[in-house]
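USER:
Class, as today's exercise, take the chain set out below, and explain how the chain folds.
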Amino acid sequence: MPARRRFLMLSAAPFAPSLSSAQSPQPPFRLAVAGLVHGHARGFLNLLQRHPEVQLAGVSDPSGPLRHSYSERFQIPANRLFVSIDEMLDRTRPDAVALFGSTFDHPAGVEACAARRIPVMMEKPLAVSLEHAARIDRASRQSGIPVIVNYETTWYRSHAALWRFFREQKAAGAIRKMVAMDGHMGPREIGVGPEFFSWLTDPKLNGAGALFDFGCYGANLMTWMLDNARPLSVTARTLRIKPKIYSHVDDEATIVVDYPAAQGIIQASWNWPYHRKDFEVYGESGYAHAIGGNLVRFRTAPREPEQTLTPPELPPDETDAVTYLRAIARGRLKPAGLSSLENNLIATEILVAARESARTGRTVTRPVK
């Protein structure tokens, strides 16, 4: 089925009035945020301002200065701030949790939520290793809680249009090639906060550099377009073009993912001259290119002219990370597609194989679970 869509970035505003249960005709959905070192936490808290049906139950992070900074910026009351995720979960009993720690911290966060039967969402990618991915999968299965992964590109209307074009309308025949181009000028260059930069450039906490940070988008999308098929082989090359800034991780990565009848090329970079999240899919007789979130260019036959399409709006429960997490936690939807744990376990296999290929200079064949 088509995936969930776009993560909105909105200006900051106070929490108290817009999130009060008195203004909502139904009991508010109580959402907690665990961890603040991921820079996307700011955008997520901004996003909540568009959701009066959601109440911020609590925020946890070990760093006092970071908690204070977010408290001031978003006017979060002191009694909703906690040092640890365990204290926050036990004191607030939220309906769901959004994790914004480092990727390395994901298993511990999921396990804390699973112990209390609380649905959980994390920022991409799922995990830094197969071992961490297995811990997350095991916690989800044993507790029965849904675990979903949030990508900005999941909420792109253009990607829903690509799915319809190839999978529902079958407008260009079988998929033969996919090219994902994701990244920006670099974390330092775009001015991420020090708490984000410190772990994003740590190979233990992030898994790698641009290879994991932006390679995950292509791995996620390609796995989705091919119905969770596992590749035959993965080949990757990485570069450290700016070693004075990124001394411990790659800042440039190219991953070739081979399937029985298709090939994927993932271009993940902290060296693009601009922010980029484009996805091209080529079939037997045509193609469709998603340019950012709101534009699609396509051709259905070799001699047909290229056309453009502005995709329609997404279903109400699939417009952004908050609406989707709420629908999952309330049981209206089951995790599927781009956000699903099944997809992201395979995406992790691709990333881990790519990291190994880049390290050894060899193709990794038949990545295993």
